Amino acid sequence: MLEEELIFLTEDFVRKILGNDESGHDWWHILRVRNLALSIGKMEGADLFIVEMAALLHDVDDWKLRVGLTRKHRAKEWLLDNGIEPEIINKICDVIYKVSFKGANVNTPVTNPECAAVQDADRLDAIGAIGIARTFAYGGSRGRSIYDPDVPPVLHNDFEEYKNSKAPTINHFYEKLLLLKDRMQTKSGRAMAEQRHEFMVDFLDQFYSEWNTEFF
Ligand code: NI
Question: Is the pLDDT at 68 greater than 50, yes or no?
Fold first, then answer.
C-alpha cells in the first residue's frame, strides 16, 4: 500500500476512535500534534512517515482515555492488519510508547529524531492557551474540581501515583504543565514552549489574583 493511502486510512481509523472524546484528546488534538510533529520532524531530519503515523496513532491506546480501556494494542493491530513491515511497526510503536508523560520525577528518554518530534509536539499541545483549555476539559471529564487551596500539588515519583491522582485541575500545572518547557527535546520545540509557558504563568497569576480578591 502507498504511504499516502495508509495515512489517509489511518486518519479515518483514528477519527472513529477519538472523534467523540470530550477530555481534550479529540481528533483536533491529533491534527495539531501531527502538524507540529511534521514541522519539527522536518527541521530535525526525521523520517516523516514514521513521525506522521506515530502522531496520528499516539493516543488510540492512551491509558487516560476511556476508549482505550477495552483494547490495549490498537495501534499495533492496525499496523499489522495493514501489512506494515515489522521493522516499521516497531519504530512507530516505539515512538508512541515514549511520547506519554509518566510523572514529574519519571524520566522518558528519547533516542531518535522521530520520537523527539512527536513528543515535543504532544507536549506543546498540552501547554499555552490550548493546553489550559484542554487541562480544564480533562479535569471536568474526570470529575475533578478546578482548584482547592487546601490540596497542594505533588511531584509524582512513579507512574502509578501520577495516574491515580484525583487532585484539582490547577495542581496539574505544577505536576506536569510547567515542567514541560525544560523537557523539550528539540530546539524549535523549546522555542515554541517558552512562549506558551509564559502565557500559562500569566494565566495562573491572574487566576490567583481573582481568587484572592478581598471583599470591601
Ligand atoms: Ni496526545
Answer: no
Residue 216 lies in a domain: no
CA 106 to centroid of ligand 1, rounded, Å: 18
Total domain count for the chain?
A: 1
Residues 6+ apart with CB under 8 A from 76: 89, 93
Residue 150, domain CATH:
1.10.3210.50
> Cell digits for 115?
520520537
Q: What is the mean pLDDT of residues 166-186?
A: 93
Task: Domain of residue 76: give its range.
Answer: 3-211
Contacts of 35 (CB under 8 A, 6+ apart): 121
* Amino acid in the structure at residue 86: P
pLDDT value at 144 more than 90: yes
Is it the case that residue 133 has pLDDT exceeding 60?
A: yes
State the distance from the centre of ligand 1 to the C-alpha of 48, rounded, in angstroms. Answer: 18
* Cα separations in angstroms, 116 against 44, 170, 194: 9, 27, 17
Nearest CA to 173 out of 121, 207, 127 is that of: 127
**Ligand 1 mean position, distance from CA 84 (Å):** 23
Cβ neighbourhood burial of 49 (10 Å; 0-12, 13-18, 19+): middle
Residue 206 lies in a domain: yes
Give the DSSP letter of residue 213. P
Ligand 1 centroid–CA 90 distance in Å is 19
